[in-house]
Design brief:
Number of strands: 18
Number of helices: 2
Structural class: alpha+beta
Radius of gyration: 25 Å
Mean pLDDT: 86
Shape: elongated
Number of domains: 2
Largest sheet: 7 strands, antiparallel
Low-confidence stretches: none
Distance between the termini: 23 Å
Order of helices and strands: HEEEEEEEEEEEEEEEEEEH
Helix content: 25-40%
Strand content: 25-35%
C-alpha cells in the first residue's frame, strides 16, 4: 500500500502544479499579449520486481505554451502594435533579449520605442528603434516599416523560436529561446491594434474545478490511508 501512497503523492504534486498554472492563466485573462500555459503530464515507470510488475509515478514538471493568436482589438494608439500570424516582437532587457506579443510601446525622451517597463523594441537587425526628432504622423506598414512624413526610418523586427527550438516562459508576457531567434518574413503588423490574451476564461474555470475535485479525491485517499495506518499502529501497541 506504501506504493499507492507514493503514487498518489506524486499525482497530488502534479495537480497542485496544474492548479497554479490555471490560476495564473485566469489572472492574466485580460493581460495584453499573454499566452496561456498548460501542464505536461508524463508517466515514469519503476520496476518493482523481476516479474515485470511496475510502479507508475506521475511527473508534471513540463509546461506547454499555447501560441494560438488572441483577438485583435482596435485602440487607435499610434504605437499600439499587434502581430497577425506567427512571430513575436523582440525587446532588449537587462537579462538579455526577450520575445513578446504585447505590443504597447511608447517613445522615450531619446526617441527610442520602449515597453511600459522601459525595455527597448528592436528592429530586424536587433538594434534599438529610434524615432527621428520632430517626426510626426509616424506610420507602421504591414511589413513593419516605420515612416514619418513619408520617409522610412526603420523596420520593426518580428522573430520566432528556431525550428525545434524551445520557447521558455520567463515572466509577464516575455519568453526566451534556447537558440538565437529567427526572423519571420511573412508576419503582418497592425498599427493601432493590440492582441488580447488568448485565455478562454470559461475553459480555465472549468478546468480549475476539475483539478480541484481530482485533488480532493486524492487527499481523501491519503487521509483514509493515514487513519488506517494509525489504527494498525494503535492495535499493535495495545
Amino acid at each position: 500500500m506504501e506504493n499507492a501512497i507514493y503514487a498518489t503523492l506524486t499525482r497530488q504534486s502534479g495537480l497542485m502544479a496544474e492548479m497554479r498554472v490555471v490560476a495564473n492563466n485566469i489572472a492574466n485573462a485580460n493581460t495584453t499579449g499573454f499566452r496561456r500555459e498548460g501542464v505536461i503530464f508524463a508517466e515514469h515507470l519503476s520496476a518493482l520486481d523481476r516479474n515485470g510488475d511496475t510502479l507508475s509515478m506521475a511527473n508534471a514538471r513540463g509546461r506547454l505554451v499555447d501560441l494560438d493568436q488572441g483577438v485583435l482589438t482596435q485602440t487607435g494608439g499610434n504605437y499600439d502594435l499587434a502581430i497577425e500570424g506567427d512571430g513575436f516582437f523582440l525587446i532588449e532587457t537587462p537579462d538579455g533579449n526577450r520575445l513578446t506579443r504585447a505590443g504597447v510601446f511608447l517613445p522615450s525622451a531619446e526617441g527610442e520605442l520602449m515597453t511600459a517597463d522601459g525595455f527597448r523594441l528592436l528592429d530586424e537587425g536587433m538594434a534599438p528603434i529610434i524615432v527621428p526628432a520632430g517626426a510626426s504622423g509616424v506610420a507602421v506598414g504591414a511589413d513593419g516599416t516605420l515612416s514619418a512624413n513619408g520617409v522610412a526610418f526603420g523596420r520593426i523586427g518580428v522573430f520566432a523560436a528556431p525550428e525545434n527550438g524551445q520557447l521558455t516562459y520567463q515572466s509577464g508576457t516575455s519568453f526566451t529561446t534556447d537558440a538565437a531567434p529567427q526572423p519571420v518574413n511573412d508576419a503582418r503588423i497592425r498599427q493601432g491594434f493590440l492582441e488580447e490574451s488568448n485565455v478562454d476564461s470559461v475553459f480555465e474555470i472549468t478546468r480549475m474545478i476539475e483539478v480541484q475535485r481530482a485533488y480532493e479525491l486524492g487527499q481523501s485517499f491519503l487521509d483514509r490511508e493515514d487513519q488506517r495506518i494509525r489504527s494498525a499502529i494503535t492495535g499493535m501497541t495495545r
